[in-house]
Amino acid sequence: MEIGAGQPARYDAVTIFLHWVIALLVLFMIGLGLYMDHIPVNDPMPLHQLHKSVGIVTMLLIVVRVIWRLTHKAPALPKDMLPAQRMAIGGMEGILYLFQIFLPATGWLMVSSMAMPIVLFGLVSWPLIPLPQSVMDSGTLAEVMPDIHNWLAWVFGGFIALHVLAALYHRFIKKDQIVDRILPRHGAGR
């Protein structure tokens, strides 16, 4: 069912759940990362492990979300939406998915290049990415990865801001039902 013909077409419950859980985890990770950047390196080891643990869990949830998205069609957009707007929505969705995959992957590569252990929530060891000894010996990857990971986080934050601004625009200025497609349902009457 297309938006504009009665109730809006909605994402399925699994997509809605994954969207909001991952959104909260990503915001937590960005906040924790910003905090960790402003405290002495010798203090945050428990915070680094928490950041790595939540990052790995988030990455796994994102893999589930991508697989789910590839096997479950998104609800239709409004009939009157311009082709350029449709392309912008699809492009933004693709960019957000890429960042959600690449950001935790660069974090994993970063700690692997530094041979730093990953212990998920202090309970389970997570394997490091196997790297050639020549890469480990040169130290170049370990030197550049923190900057790459940090830079990607800032760019991702910018795209998240654009995504939120677009949602607010549709909700409060355009007053269409685009945002309703991903909002959790409240009450039995909806």
Give structural notes.
By secondary structure, the chain is mainly alpha-helical. It has a single domain, classed as Fumarate Reductase Cytochrome B subunit. Helices cover 64% and strands 3% of the residues. The chain contains five helices and two strands. The protein has helices spanning 13-36, 45-71, 83-113, 133-138, 140-173, and strands spanning 118-120, 124-126. The protein has a two-stranded antiparallel ribbon. A hairpin with a 3-residue loop joins strand 1 (118-120) and strand 2. Helix 1 (13-36) packs antiparallel against helix 2 (45-71), helix 2 (45-71) packs antiparallel against helix 3 (83-113) and helix 3 (83-113) runs antiparallel to helix 5. The longest helix has 34 residues, at 140-173. The protein is elongated, with a radius of gyration of 19 Å. The model is unreliable at 1-5 (pLDDT under 50).
Mind sketching the topology for me?
Blueprint: H1 13-36, H2 45-71, H3 83-113, E1 118-120, E2 124-126, H4 133-138, H5 140-173
Antiparallel strand pairs: 1-2
Protein name: Cytochrome b561 bacterial/Ni-hydrogenase domain-containing protein
Main location: membrane
Transmembrane segments: 12-34, 54-71, 95-128, 148-169
